[in-house]
Specification:
15 strands; seven-stranded parallel sheet; single chain
């Protein structure tokens, strides 16, 4: 395992280890285990599974990618790769104490080209997993939702809390993701109210870390990572007001586990850090993360290909993490430190694989 990630796992265990005691002697299922957030979560659960005697089941569609990510651990008796098709109600006849449902395409390309494949795991898959939880009994079902479910606010707000909602156009191409996430939350609530299946929902906001799929992810952060690894110059649009509320993946998974173990059934929790940061600063932190980096940043004027409104960041709403902090969560990695750690992690893997990088 990468030494930077190992450090992060050790820090998470030292800070939250008492909370993780609830996992002792439990059976845990993670769906979509090869995803950007879920792969980091799965590897962390593997790292603590011996401490807490956890039987861990990682559901993955892409067997080749799963073996590449988790192959070093598959000789352990308590780590199991499974590829059952839960969208067709083909679920192993196992009672899981905890289900973390993370399976869902989340990229713009999928929203545009394969919207049915986006909806299916969020709606049909959630339905069958909740039915399985109802039949077998469960301690907690955790649904990976998204900050995107808040839609477009009709009025300016200083921050967005869990009870705030805006407008969503059901025919907008991205709504396949947003509406299916909303429905998955409502299904969890319905099963809780009618069948006493305890479920909670994490509304995950902008996340970054050393687990991007660099081959397929076209967003700005993984694009810059690719350019750094290839010693290419980085061209960006000149927009000093472009911002985001980024959270490092280590902080995201500690939040996820706290909601799993401490969150109220029927409760939703924003998963986000404290800071809104400028994209210009993010790029600067990445490019200056290590002396070995030779990429330089080139700015160009905004043109018709710019996907965001100029200066739109001045209206960027901040997500509130008050409910999350009340569970005992706090941010361990500032954006400046987190982005530097992420880049150094990729550089380490890139060097070790003689030109390859972690997918």
């Amino acid at each position: 395992m990468n030494k930077i990630i190992t450090e992060e796992f050790e820090r998470l265990l030292s800070v939250y280890g008492d909370k993780f005691e609830k996992l002792h002697n439990c059976t845990v299922l993670v769906t979509g285990a090869t995803g950007m957030i879920a792969s980091y979560l799965s590897e962390f659960l593997i790292s603590i599974s011996g401490i807490y005697n956890v039987q861990l089941y990682l559901q993955c569609r892409n067997g080749g990618k799963a073996k590449k990510l988790f192959g070093d651990y598959l000789d352990r008796e308590n780590v199991h790769l499974v590829n059952f098709d839960f969208e067709n109600n083909e679920i192993s006849d196992i009672r899981f104490d905890y289900i973390l449902h993370a399976a869902s395409p989340a990229g713009t390309a999928a929203f545009e080209k394969t919207p049915v494949d986006v909806i299916s795991p969020n709606v049909i898959g959630t339905w069958y997993l909740l039915q399985h939880a109802r039949r077998k009994g469960i301690i907690k079902f955790l649904m990976f939702s998204s900050g995107a479910i808040y839609g477009q606010s009709e009025r300016e707000k200083a921050s967005i809390a869990e009870e705030d909602y805006g407008v969503i156009d059901p025919l907008w191409y991205r709504s396949c993701y947003v509406e299916s996430k909303r429905l998955s939350e409502q299904m969890g609530m319905a099963f809780w109210k009618q069948y006493n299946v305890p479920s909670s929902y994490v509304r995950i906001c902008h996340t970054y870390g050393p687990t991007f799929d660099l081959e397929k992810d076209l967003r700005i952060v993984p694009r810059i990572i690719r350019q750094i690894l290839n010693s290419e110059d980085i061209t960006i649009y000149k927009d000093p007001y472009s911002v985001a509320q980024y959270t490092y993946v280590a902080d995201v998974i500690s939040a996820i586990l706290l909601v799993l173990l401490e969150g109220k059934p029927g409760g939703a929790y924003n998963v986000c850090g404290d800071d809104i940061v400028k994209i210009d600063d993010v790029i600067d932190w990445m490019v200056n993360a290590d002396p070995s980096i030779h990429s330089t940043v080139l700015e160009k004027e905004i043109d018709e290909n710019y996907k965001f409104g100029k200066n739109s960041g001045t209206l960027f709403p901040k997500f509130s993490n008050r409910k999350l902090t009340e569970l005992g969560w706090h941010q361990l990695y500032s954006p400046k430190e987190g982005f530097a750690r992420m880049v150094r992690c990729y550089l380490e893997d890139h060097k070790d694989s003689a030109g390859g990088y972690r997918e």
